[in-house]
């Protein structure tokens, strides 16, 4: 998309942004970028730790003299319209004159309530909390459409970036076989020393000279050798499956398999891998979402947790021309991989906010619960076990996530509704936690989920 029309817009309108969950991670990157964006201004940030908000704003370079802490609505009314407000109650954010609410808490109860409060008042909502969208996305998109507001996932996170790529391909009439992303971290091999590094921040490596035997891709047997050799790194990550859940619900694409495929692959191999089995690939069906682990040499660029689509090449002469340009194609010439090797977190998010606030682009009323993120017991879990979402990947100890087509999910309980739930009975290893295994009654977000199922 050409953004010149946004840059040159004559209305002098600006997005006035409120952020909930603003001081760390994603929220921090957005706070750092907003001062650079001429069509946007920060109005309010919300955190349970207002002192931390002040410290972060000062660290980034916001003018301390403009910052006002508001304990209640009366304080907001008395504050200058150009002030940057800090509040600790998320419900006060909606009283600050914002046009855009960015939700970053990852807390389904808070973010669903905040989103509904905003949308029903015509305030646009930009959802970073993928956990909430996986449960409430259909309803939130519907409420936005009904109230003339925008509800949108955000650029900078993989689901929105992949949806943009997917919609671009659809606009061009391309047939999409698969859509997906690389997992968050790379497997980096130094061919000279044989050392393998997993880029998860631990800065550790291990000798892996046998990787040379399966470094060059020869077909599915290569993937099998890599999987066996690197099984210590193989992990089904809840964040990955959650992100593909969001894409599935908007596009109608279904999971390639319940735990997704996670082949260890180089970028140059993707068009040979995410294709039907009869063509030498791994897919038992097409029209799917999936994930891979990025394998690369020490001197090669990262996929950066980026996004890809696999398309059919329908005009042989055209694709011969494109292949000569270096595009990634399958050996049989029938498929191509198109990809974005990035997701820049909050640095990119202003694009989504401005498209929504100034051009009313974002809402997907067609969003439905196409797939459901569930949790399977990794071991026998006794009655009384309390399930808790924790850690960088927002996982639940004792459960491995699986992404199920809705028709096959039966009574599986949504993964991110299980936070704080207590098992009412034993759950055997290998079985999903079902709606009968926990008591979700009384949770508003569970009611939102059920309303979404009815759409």
Word description of this protein:
With 455 residues, the protein is α/β, with parallel strands linked by helices. The chain contains 14 helices and 21 strands. The chain has helices at 4-7, 25-33, 50-60, 73-78, 108-119, 130-146, 158-171, 220-229, 238-251, 270-273, 316-324, 349-359, 406-409, 444-453, and strands at 15-20, 40-46, 67-69, 84-87, 100-103, 124-127, 151-153, 176-182, 187-190, 195-198, 205-207, 254-255, 264-265, 288-297, 307-312, 328-329, 335-340, 371-377, 389-390, 395-396, 399-405. Strands 8, 9, 10, 11, 12, 13, 14, 15, 16 and 17 form a 10-stranded mixed sheet that branches.
What is the number of strand segments? 21
Structural class: alpha/beta
Helix content: 25-40%
CA-based gyration radius: 23 Å
Low-confidence stretches: none
**Distance between the first and last residues' Cα:** 31 Å
Q: Roughly what is the average pLDDT, rounded to an integer?
A: 96
For the report, how would you describe the main beta sheet?
10 strands, mixed
Give the arrangement of secondary structure elements.
Elements lengths: L3 H4 L7 E6 L4 H9 L6 E7 L3 H11 L6 E3 L3 H6 L5 E4 L12 E4 L4 H12 L4 E4 L2 H17 L4 E3 L4 H14 L4 E7 L4 E4 L4 E4 L6 E3 L12 H10 L8 H14 L2 E2 L8 E2 L4 H4 L14 E10 L9 E6 L3 H9 L3 E2 L5 E6 L8 H11 L11 E7 L11 E2 L4 E2 L2 E7 H4 L34 H10 L2
Parallel strand pairs: 1-2, 1-5, 2-4, 3-4, 5-6, 6-7, 8-14, 9-14, 12-14, 13-14
Antiparallel strand pairs: 8-15, 9-10, 10-11, 15-17, 16-17, 18-21, 19-20
Helix pairs in contact: 5-6, 6-9, 6-14, 7-9
């Amino acid at each position: 998309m050409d953004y010149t029309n946004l840059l040159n817009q004559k209305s002098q309108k600006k997005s006035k942004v409120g952020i909930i969950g603003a001081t760390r991670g994603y929220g921090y990157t957005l706070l750092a970028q907003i001062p650079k964006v001429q069509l946007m201004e920060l109005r309010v940030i919300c955190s349970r730790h207002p002192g931390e908000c002040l410290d972060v704003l000062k660290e980034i370079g916001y003018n301390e003299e403009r910052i006002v802490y508001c304990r209640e609505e009366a304080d907001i009314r008395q504050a200058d319209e150009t002030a940057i407000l800090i509040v600790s109650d998320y419900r006060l954010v909606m009283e600050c004159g914002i046009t855009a609410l960015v939700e970053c808490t990852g807390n389904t109860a808070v973010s669903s309530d905040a989103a509904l409060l905003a949308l029903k008042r015509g305030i646009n909502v930009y959802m970073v909390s993928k956990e909430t969208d996986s449960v409430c996305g259909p309803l939130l998109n519907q409420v936005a459409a009904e109230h003339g507001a925008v509800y949108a996932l955000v650029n900078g996170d993989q689901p929105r970036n992949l949806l943009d790529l997917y919609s671009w391909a659809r606009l061009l009439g391309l047939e999409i076989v698969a859509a997906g992303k690389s997992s968050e971290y790379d497997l980096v091999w130094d061919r000279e020393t044989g050392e393998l590094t997993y880029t998860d921040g631990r800065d550790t490596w291990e000798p892996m000279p046998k990787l040379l035997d399966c470094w060059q891709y020869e077909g599915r047997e290569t993937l099998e050798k890599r999987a066996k050799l690197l099984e210590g790194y193989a992990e089904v990550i809840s964040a990955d499956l959650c992100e593909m859940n969001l894409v599935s619900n908007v596009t109608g694409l279904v999971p390639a398999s319940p735990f997704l495929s996670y082949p260890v692959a180089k970028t140059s191999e993707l068009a040979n891998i995410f294709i039907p089995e009869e063509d030498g690939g791994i897919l038992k069906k097409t029209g799917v979402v999936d994930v891979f682990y990025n394998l690369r040499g020490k001197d090669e660029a990262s996929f950066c947790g980026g996004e890809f689509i696999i398309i059919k090449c329908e005009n042989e002469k055209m694709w011969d021309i494109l292949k000569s340009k270096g595009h990634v194609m399958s050996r049989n010439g029938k498929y191509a991989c198109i990809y974005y090797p990035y997701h820049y977190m909050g640095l990119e998010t202003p694009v989504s906010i401005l498209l929504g606030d100034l051009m009313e682009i974002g809402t997907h009323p067609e969003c439905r619960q196409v797939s459901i993120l569930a949790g399977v017991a990794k071991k026998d879990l006794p009655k009384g076990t309390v399930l808790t979402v924790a850690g960088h990947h927002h996982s639940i100890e004792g459960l491995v996530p699986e992404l199920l087509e809705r028709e096959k999910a039966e009574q599986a309980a949504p993964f991110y509704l299980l936070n704080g739930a207590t098992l009412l009975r034993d759950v055997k290893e290998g079985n999903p936690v079902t709606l009968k295994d926990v008591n979700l009654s009384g949770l508003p977000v569970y009611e939102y989920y059920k309303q979404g199922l009815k759409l």
